[in-house]
Design a protein that fits this description.
Layout lengths: L3 H14 L4 H7 L24 H11 L3 H7 L20 E6 H4 L17 E4 L11 E4 L14 E5 L9 E6 L4 E9 L3 E6 L7 E4 L3 E10 L2
Parallel strand pairs: 1-3
Antiparallel strand pairs: 1-2, 3-4, 4-9, 5-6, 5-9, 6-7, 7-8
C-alpha cells in the first residue's frame, strides 16, 4: 500500500534527480509553484493532503519519467534521486551512445527501451545536464534518413517521454530493425510511421511487432 509519506518522498526524489526543488518541479509541470511545498502536505487541522493523480501525471510527462520509475522511488530504502536497478545513473552532461546497427543487435535495452547491458560508449549531452536519466544517444549510419539526418548525426532519444502524432521517433521492431520516422498515427492495434527519406516507404506495424518506441528530443545537425 502507498503511504502518504512515501508518495511525497518519491516526488522529492524525482525533483532531486532532475536537480530541482519541489517548487521547481511543480513549475516545470505547469502547476502552481507551491503545489508540492511541505506546507501543503498537511491541512491546518493536521489532516494529510495527497498529491492528485493529475499532478503526478503532469510531473512524469514534464520530466520524461515513466510510472514504473516513479513506483521504484516508492520502494523503502531507495536513495533520493536514484534510478531503478539496470538503468544508467544520471551523469552531468554525459549519456550512453550506440550506433543504429548495434541497437538492432539486441542486449542493449531493457523491455522499456531504456539503455542497459554493456558495450555502450559515452557522449556529452549538448543540451546540457539536468535531464540525463534514461536519455541516450544513437548515431546515424548510412543515408536512409536523408535529407533530414545524415550519416554521423547523433540523435538524443528519451524513451520516457510521451509520444504524440507528428513527433520524430526511433522505433525498434521485434525483428531487430531500428528506424527513425515520424509518428503519423498510434492506436491500440498498431502504429503508422512516415519516412524521413522520400525514397523510402512509409511503414505500418501491428502493436505486437513493436519492441519499443522513443521520442527524438535533439539532433546534432
Amino acid at each position: 500500500m502507498f503511504s502518504h509519506d512515501a508518495i511525497w518522498r518519491a516526488l522529492d526524489a524525482l525533483a532531486e534527480r532532475h536537480r530541482l526543488s519541489p517548487s521547481g518541479l511543480a513549475r516545470r509541470a505547469g502547476l502552481d509553484p507551491t503545489t508540492f511545498n511541505k506546507s501543503k502536505r498537511q491541512s491546518t487541522d493536521g489532516r494529510e493532503r495527497w498529491p492528485s493523480t493529475e499532478s503526478i501525471a503532469k510531473v512524469l510527462d514534464a520530466t520524461g519519467s515513466t510510472i514504473e520509475q516513479f513506483l521504484e522511488l516508492l520502494r523503502p530504502g531507495r536513495p533520493p534521486g536514484s534510478l531503478p536497478e539496470g538503468n544508467f545513473p544520471p551523469q552531468p552532461g554525459s549519456i550512453p551512445l550506440l550506433g543504429f546497427a548495434q541497437a538492432g543487435a539486441g542486449g542493449f535495452f531493457d523491455d522499456g527501451g531504456f539503455p542497459a547491458g554493456q558495450g555502450w560508449d559515452m557522449v556529452e549531452f549538448p543540451a546540457g545536464p539536468g535531464r540525463t536519466g534514461g536519455v541516450y544517444a544513437l548515431e546515424i549510419q548510412g543515408d536512409s534518413m536523408m535529407p533530414l539526418y545524415r550519416d554521423g548525426d547523433v540523435l538524443i532519444v528519451d524513451p520516457g517521454a510521451q509520444v504524440r502524432r507528428g513527433d520524430r521517433v526511433v522505433v525498434k521492431t521485434r525483428d531487430g530493425e531500428v528506424m527513425a520516422k515520424v509518428l503519423a498515427r498510434q492506436t491500440l492495434r498498431g502504429i503508422e510511421l512516415l519516412s524521413l527519406n522520400p525514397n523510402h516507404p512509409n511503414r505500418t506495424f501491428e502493436s505486437g511487432d513493436i519492441d519499443w518506441i522513443a521520442r527524438i528530443i535533439w539532433a546534432s545537425q
